[in-house]
Amino acid sequence: MSKHSLKDEINPTYGDRITVLSIDGVGIRGIIPGTILAFLETKLQLDGEDARIADYFDVIAGTSTGGLITAMLTAPDRNNRPLYLAKNVVPFYLDHCPKIFPQSNGTIVRMNAILGPKYSGKYFRKLLRQILGTRRLHETVTRVVIPTFDIRLLQPIVFSTFEAETDASQDALLSDICISTSSAPTYFPAYHFKTKDSEGNDKEFHLVDGGIAENNPSLLAMKPTGRVFPGDPDELPEQALKWNKYLVISLGTGTSKIKKNSDAKTAAKWDRRSS
């Protein structure tokens, strides 16, 4: 794997591999890929360089909590370097998750589950707006792909840097995208925001957790043109289009120790309190 960044090139020249990092969703369990990425970034410190995860991947994709990590590792600072070191991801979760997922007594939790989402999401939204500020999708230091799901259109909405560069309405604030892909139904409210197209017209989004569309976004990140890489597939080296010429690191977030196997009889009794 060679250190390179293809983000700013219109017709990039690929090496012999296309490098892809994919990060799954599921809330606070983002600590798991955060730990792995911190270890990887430490091992990439060669020749005294300030190596970052984004330097080594042509595209980084993330869903839900993975989308948040993706933004942290690719949003630019004042020097156009990644805003966060990988080693900062786990401390971020440990510091803020108690406020993002506040624990209340059982009665309040049950009432919240009946009346609406379990958590208000106010702290989380304010936090992301403070951290990511006015940074937009096209500004990321390498290409990113973050899926969401539009509940009004009933279809996935996939945000990617290439589409943001060619379609102004897709060039949303990174904070809006991260809030949207993390808005798990029954846990957080759905999220609404607007962008402008190239003619100045409003485009509305009514979005929830990207996990409804694609909890593991690795295949979205591997699409050779359109979502990630511009141009015609014929313009890409033939060897790079073959599956064995992709280098993919796909990080999961573990599984629950409690098995919840359901059948039709138990599913018939599901309500929001079951989630």
| Strand elements, count | 7
- Shape from CA axes? globular
Radius of gyration, in angstroms, nearest whole number = 19 Å
Count of helical stretches: 11
User: What is the succession of H and E elements?
Assistant: EHEHHHHEEHHEEHHHEH
- The helix content is 25-40%
What low-confidence regions span 5 or more consecutive residues with pLDDT below 50?
1-13
Distance between the termini: 41 Å
Strand content: 15-25%
| Biggest β-sheet strands, sense, barrel | 7 strands, mixed
- Secondary structure class reads alpha/beta
Mean pLDDT score: 82
Question: What do you see in this structure?
Answer:
With 275 residues, the protein is of the alpha/beta class. 32% of the residues lie in helices and 16% in strands. The protein is built from eleven helices and seven strands. Strands 1, 2, 3, 4, 5, 6 and 7 form a seven-stranded mixed sheet that branches. Helix 1 links the parallel strand 1 and strand 2 (59-62). The longest helix is centred in the first third of the chain and has 13 residues, at 31-43. The relative contact order is 0.19.
Chain-wise SSE layout:
Elements: E1 18-23, H1 31-43, E2 59-62, H2 65-74, H3 89-100, H4 106-115, H5 122-132, E3 143-150, E4 155-160, H6 161-166, H7 174-181, E5 191-196, E6 202-208, H8 211-214, H9 218-222, H10 238-241, E7 246-251, H11 264-267
Parallel strand pairs: 1-2, 1-7, 2-3
Antiparallel strand pairs: 3-4, 3-6, 5-6
Helix pairs in contact: 1-3, 2-7, 5-7
